[in-house]
């Protein structure tokens, strides 16, 4: 406890609470991952300056009880003389965090530099202030220089606040800066009237505390807004992907319902009507099921079980065997069917194998083989034919088939994370392998 001017001043009242508040801000800054590094350092500097100011207040109260002047008191007071505009300058820098104009920032530092020079001058001359033999402050002709510089710093902060109001349109930040200006002006008044040490000390601490929590609130708000924007972008991206997948499904479906295939199948069924009406009825039923499966795939956005896709392949091959009879041989080797995949993934590849295999095979029977295997990291589907094959480096003549293969590949990658590989050798045949990663399922998979 210190007895001063008829009142007892408690170190606890002056020193403890402001220091706890400033230390708490420093602790929060240390664990703050949202704030920019540059702005964080501004706050660290502001906290240090405020702590120096608080300790300076405490030291000043203690030094007033001395009977003789001391070089230590001169040094501490000189430091405090420069610290006050520095605090305002740091608050202004934080407010100007988005500005890249170095000249304005240097210009705003002028009041702090002038006060620093004025404080240092007290060691050599009596222009600003000095201490008499009784350790009392005697004001010099330039004593009010510090107050003028602080007023200039406050005006700079007011101008910055007005700029923020115009350009950033952030009314909340302007309001907080206005509160800070009022608090600091109250501290200046208390110091000018040589009273209210607690007002001076509290105004600086409270200003820093308020501005930090405002800034943190803004950071959290920006963070939430940024996350919201990311979610919106992701949703838009997913919507685009869904639209692209739907378009690819439509393209595949349209490519499956080709006029020449329909005419050929109907022609074969017409011939059977005269020779074997019962077989013609079964063929017509298979053809209707083939068309219905293609049309159902238009509205299907999820995966289907391989069993459903396999049934569609069998329906298609039954129709093709009706056309080509003994010239086409279809073989299955299904080891596993416990997986899902995009609709119309395998059947277009089988159709492509039949079409190009029959066209490129000079003579003999075309064999198309469909097999599945379970592997460590997923499932493999393999479509093989012993047609004429082709050179992978050459541009395909049938652009529709090329687009169909690309669409199937992109859908498999987008919907399952799998892949599609093509191997072909002229005169030997073509092998298409689909890899589906382990665990690919879909709650809406159709059976």
**Mean pLDDT score:** 76
Number of strands: 11
Secondary-structure content class: alpha+beta
- Percentage beta strand: 5-15%
What is the CA-atom radius of gyration, in angstroms? 42 Å
Per CATH, the architecture of the largest domain is Up-down Bundle
Number of self-contained structural domains: 2
Ends distance: 85 Å
The largest sheet, given as strand count, sense and whether it forms a barrel, is: 5 strands, mixed
Give the helices and strands as they follow along the chain: EEHHHHHEEHHHHHEHEEHEEHEE
Enumerate the strands of the largest sheet in spatial order, edge to edge or round the barrel. 6-8-9-11-10
**CATH fold assignment of the largest domain:** Rhopdopsin 7-helix transmembrane proteins
Contiguous low-pLDDT stretches (5 residues minimum) are: 1-9
Q: What is the C-level CATH assignment of the largest domain? A: Mainly Alpha
Helical element count? 13
Shape: rod-shaped
Q: Helicity level, as a percent range?
A: 55-70%
General description of the model:
The structure is a single chain. The protein has 447 residues and is of the alpha+beta class. The chain has two domains: 2-231, Rhopdopsin 7-helix transmembrane proteins (Up-down Bundle), CATH 1.20.1070; 257-437, Heat Shock Protein 90 (2-Layer Sandwich). Helices cover 64% and strands 13% of the residues. The strands form four sheets. It has a five-stranded mixed β-sheet, with helices on one face. Strands 1-2 form a two-stranded antiparallel ribbon. Strands 3-4 form a two-stranded antiparallel sheet. Residues 1-9 have low confidence and may be disordered.
């Amino acid at each position: 406890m210190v007895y001063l001017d008829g009142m007892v001043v408690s170190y606890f009242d002056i020193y403890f609470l402001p220091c706890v508040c400033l230390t708490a801000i420093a602790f929060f800054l240390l664990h703050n991952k949202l704030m920019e590094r540059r702005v964080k350092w501004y706050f660290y500097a502001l906290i240090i300056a405020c702590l120096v100011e608080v300790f300076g207040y405490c030291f000043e109260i203690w030094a007033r009880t001395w009977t003789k002047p001391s070089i230590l008191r001169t040094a501490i007071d000189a430091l405090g003389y420069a610290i006050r505009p520095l605090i305002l300058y740091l608050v202004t820098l934080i407010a100007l965090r988005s500005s890249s104009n170095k000249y304005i920032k240097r210009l705003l530092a002028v009041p702090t530099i002038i006060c620093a020079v004025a404080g240092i001058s007290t060691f050599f001359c009596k222009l600003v202030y000095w201490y008499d033999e009784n350790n009392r402050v005697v004001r010099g002709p330039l004593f009010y220089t510090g107050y003028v510089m602080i007023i200039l710093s406050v005006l700079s902060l007011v101008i910055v606040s007005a700029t923020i109001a115009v350009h950033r349109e952030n009314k909340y930040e302007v309001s907080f800066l206005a509160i800070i200006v009022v608090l600091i002006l109250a501290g200046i008044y208390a110091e000018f009237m040589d009273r209210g040490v607690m007002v001076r000390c509290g105004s600086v601490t409270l200003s820093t505390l308020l501005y930090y929590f405002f800034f943190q609130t803004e950071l959290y708000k920006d963070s939430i807004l940024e996350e919201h924007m990311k979610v919106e972008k992701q949703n838009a991206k997913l919507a685009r992907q869904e639209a692209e997948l739907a378009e690819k499904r439509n393209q595949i479906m349209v490519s499956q319902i080709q006029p020449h295939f329909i005419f050929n199948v109907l022609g074969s069924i017409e011939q059977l009507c005269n020779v074997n009406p019962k077989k013609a009825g079964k063929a017509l039923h298979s053809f209707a099921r083939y068309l219905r499966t293609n049309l159902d795939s238009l509205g299907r956005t999820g995966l289907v079980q391989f069993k459903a896709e396999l049934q569609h392949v069998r329906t298609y091959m039954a129709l093709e065997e009706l056309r080509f009879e003994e010239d086409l041989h279809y073989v299955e080797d299904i080891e596993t069917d416990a997986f899902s995949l995009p609709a119309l993934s395998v059947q277009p590849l089988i159709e492509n194998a039949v079409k190009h295999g029959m066209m490129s095979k000079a003579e003999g029977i075309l064999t198309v083989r469909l097999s599945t295997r379970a592997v460590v990291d997923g499932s493999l589907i393999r479509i093989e034919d012993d047609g004429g094959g082709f050179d992978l480096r050459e541009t395909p003549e049938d652009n529709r088939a090329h687009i169909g293969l690309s669409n199937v590949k992109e859908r498999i990658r987008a919907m399952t994370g799998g892949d599609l590989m093509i191997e072909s050798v002229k005169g030997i045949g073509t092998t298409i392998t689909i890899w589906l990663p382990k665990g690919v399922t879909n709650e809406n998979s159709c059976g």
